[in-house]
Amino acid sequence: MKKNEFSFKPLTFVIRYLDVPLAYKSTHWGCGKKMAEIQYLDNPLETEGLLELLCPPVRNWFKDKFPDFTEPQKLAIPAIIEQEHLLLCSPTGSGKTLTAFLSIIDQLVRRALDNKLDKKVYCVYISPIKALANDIQRNLIGPLTEISESYLPSRAQEIRVGLRTGDTPQSERQKMLRNPPHILITTPESLAIAITSPRFQPIVSEVEYMIVDELHSLVPTKRGVHLALTLSYLDTLLTRPVQRIGISATMEPLETVAEYLVSSDDKESRGNNTRVCIAKISGSRELDLDILITDPKFSDLSVMKIFDKNVEAIADLIAAHTTTLVFANTRKMTENIVLKLRPYLGDLVAGHHGSMDKKIRLDVERQLKHGQLRAVVTSSSLEMGIDIGSVDLVLQIGSPGDIATALQRIGRAGHHVGGIPRARFLPSSVDDLIELAALQAAIQTGDMDRLDFPENCLDVVAQFMIGLVIINDIDIDEAYEVIVNAWSYRNFEYDDFIEVLDMLEEERRVWVDWEENLYGKRGYSRMIYYTNIGTIAPDNSYLVFNAEGSILGQLSGSFVSNLRGGDVILLGGSTYRVTNIQGTRVNVASVTGHRPTVPSWSGEARSRSRELSNALLSLIGHCIVALRREQDPRILLRDAYGLSSDVANAIARHLEEHSIDSFQVPDPNRILVEQVISGGHPTYMITTCRGRGFNTALGYFMAGLAESNNISVIELSFDENGLLLSLIHI
To answer: Are the CB atoms for 246 and 212 separated by under 8 Å?
Structure first.
């Protein structure tokens, strides 16, 4: 930390933390339901044995298409064939999606040969994002078409794949009702709507397979809470228990995720124990990682100078590889990097992020997959399993903030059997460099972020309780049972449930007949439910239209509020002049040769994870111990952490400068408080190295204590490493 003209008075104190388990596990769930039996798979089936389990058309297609099964396929497919619930944790690019689908395709092909495919949905695939759902549809139709054309007789029935998301036109939904897909690909929100539709609900009442993809992005959010309730309700509609398959590259604790996946399964009520198999291959894949700094005097450079040098390095690395995927941490940074790369690469580089129009994003994905682009710069929109073809190199600009995200992004390279993902990290500052060194160490030692699980969310359950009665009235106690069968509400108190129901009745969202123990919808409940479905917050965005009337993307309201006619903005790596703003519509015209304003989008910052913060504290602690012992930390950083001499020197110089001013540093049991001796107001710098979330909570807590003691807070700011607090006595 640069002290500039200020001096600091160390005020160190120790914070003791209680050793509380991250995930509390009770022996019983709500309504006396026992926890699922967990079985770890450790006996992979060899190639010949696995091939024998497949019917001849699927077997021959696979042998002609692939050299061999991947490790997760050898481990997991036999369990899926045995109709076991399965949780698969395996690195990106290891064939997880095919693992989940292969045995299902096999079963559908067998029925197609016997003319036993009915007009119903056999498999529901749930994707967290619409783009991934679109991609899965393409990658399913391809193999099914190949099997049908080359390996099936003409008498075989057609296996249909359907996509239902918020983007699906009403005409396509009507077609699904008349001719249901055998495999339905959807999102959590669209599934929730589908099962409350009187016409669609019967179509999914005989589902046999349920695949939930990218579980790590769902279960720690309210979207996961909402999905758990949806799956619990779906289970009440089914004629027999559905087989559940959950997949992700990065998720811990696995047993808790497994319990989440199967919580509403009702095998127990039918006299059978609920069991879920876990196939864990995570962390076993070889990785080619390195941290690059662009100047031997990196620690002395300004952030802007580092950025310019990073862009030059990115251009050189792209030129040295066939296909490169560049990850930035924000959409604004994505746009900046594309703009700076254009003089080097022209149209061979493109941007990709969630605020660009869907058609533009799909076109970028297509160009990258077909080798028409050398590089794509993205924020987070390509870190999930979207098929973009072969990627030689992944570049991560700055720290992504957690281990799981880093692994997701790294795994986009080497996306083939036997491929070794190659990734290079480029830090944006010295603090960022230290975090990347800790991140690389955490990856190499197999550490993983542990997921947090929201529970008993009253806003989500209130929404769900309206959805429960969209079609029919329901017994109040039966509604409660549906809710507590969802993992997120396994400990939901009946009194809390009744309070929510009372609130819905008072707000005239539902009617309640306490004597008959029933409740049901009011006339406008369906509209309320369908227009407020899910837990994705509205982004208050403005649509951007070009002169031809085509949508280019979205801008946040806060950014648009400062725009005026004639301003030049950057979107998708191209520059546009704002002609006018009409309501929520920003009209633009393409221009060149003008310096643009780079848009900002709200809600992009993510806090560093606990596990990465602990790895950071460990690295700093080891270096400081070396300094106290009058040892050179560079040796430690090179030998123990595997860092290059330049990287080790930059980190060591930074820590040496810090230790001169304060011998104390944060560690797992200590935060560092320093008083800034400058100005008329007491100012404190509090260094924790525990992430923005922790620092924000601590800052507001301390501000509250100050206000309660008649001390006014005149400044409060946060970053990933600490906070700044300025006070004045009232």
So the answer is: yes
